[in-house]
Automatic annotation (TrEMBL):
Any one GO MF annotation of this record: biotin synthase activity
Oligomeric and partner information: Homodimer.
UniProt KW keywords: 2Fe-2S, 4Fe-4S, Biotin biosynthesis, Iron, Iron-sulfur, Metal-binding, S-adenosyl-L-methionine, Transferase
Cited SUPFAM superfamilies: Radical SAM enzymes
Lineage: Bacteria, Pseudomonadati, Pseudomonadota, Betaproteobacteria, Burkholderiales
UniProt protein name: Biotin synthase
Pathway(s) it belongs to: Cofactor biosynthesis; biotin biosynthesis; biotin from 7,8-diaminononanoate: step 2/2
Catalytic activity line of the entry: (4R,5S)-dethiobiotin + (sulfur carrier)-SH + 2 reduced [2Fe-2S]-[ferredoxin] + 2 S-adenosyl-L-methionine = (sulfur carrier)-H + biotin + 2 5'-deoxyadenosine + 2 L-methionine + 2 oxidized [2Fe-2S]-[ferredoxin]
Enzyme class name: transferase
Family per record: Belongs to the radical SAM superfamily. Biotin synthase family.
Species in which this protein is naturally found: Alcaligenes endophyticus
Amino acid sequence: MHLPTNNWTINKVLALYELPFMDLLWQAQTVHRSNHPANHVQLSSLLSIKTGACPEDCAYCPQSSKHNTELEQEPLLDLPTVLQAAQQAKEQGASRFCMGAAWRSPTEHQLDQVIEMVSAVKNMGLETCVTLGMLKDGQAERLKAAGLDYYNHNLDTSPEFYGQIISTRTYQDRLETLERVRDAGLNTCCGGILGMGETRRQRAGLLSQLANLQPYPESVPINQLVKVPGTPLAETEDLDPFEFVRTIAVARILMPKAVIRLSAGRENMDDSTQALCFLAGASSIFYGEQLLTTANPQFSADQALFQRLGLHSQTTLEKDTPPTAPARPSTYQAALETL
Ligand code: SAM
Ligand code: DTB
Ligand code: SF4
């Protein structure tokens, strides 16, 4: 997919954040409707294929060996276990299956094993995504050849705040992995985490980095920090939910064609906030009762929410329905006059 590139300075991004909330949402929903089918939300399911004992020190992460989180570590899952989970995700309506490993970066042997999983999941008719840490030269090409659709690798936060969150890999390391992913012809899934104690300017800094990637990512997960006891960020103050919604709206305006995923953190978000996120332009969620190691809403809760909001996830509609043209204000005026 050819995506246009941009030069979003932090000040330009901040100017969007500072719009009155209703104006920002109006603008974001207008951009959304000109670029995506209305009321459609794509469903991705997650599976942790290798859990815990990660050598990295990401302050938010329950899987880091540097924190005491009581997480049970697990070696790499075998192929039948992964396929069973993928089959279940498919039956439950997911169109993409994402596999995550708590690695700094995969060895060639580990990559061989993941490649088998990717081709088998792809053959089941699901889109595939993996997140395995940093990639070395040639590894992204091998994943692409196996049928991988998306590689997830997040920038997580702004360059200015990054040093307070991770010391074992640099921002530049992340950008280099993203470049390898892009050069291999894979779709990029890249986003970040909100609510780690960053300032609004730093949130704008993250969005400006994402929007200025050339081209910007096809898929942008926006996570709200899941505060896991034992991690250094466990006691971080809650982010104002409207600030979370604003970030989704600004991301939608900056990256009109990207799919913005309302990712981790929905378990601690009420239905109204989630509805505002969809209004702001989120059009994908992680679906299934577990993220990687933490809880996600029950299927029944998500199904009820979709029904109450008139949302649907049918993948056929994704291909067949053209983006809905934004209604012109005069249409609304005419409708109002008939009341
Ligand atoms: N180990 C690989 C890596 O970090 O590159 C892949 C797996 S890692 C768990 C994938 C992403 O999950 C992280 O980049 C981070 O954005 C997100 N994540 C991890 N812990 C989180 C938490 N407690 N709350 C929100 N997002 C989290
Ligand atoms: C992403 O941005 N969020 C997902 C996915 N990419 C791999 C991971 C969320 C993890 C939340 C904490 C956990 O469950 O371990
Ligand atoms: Fe390891 Fe990834 Fe967690 Fe960082 S985010 S500690 S790299 S699993």
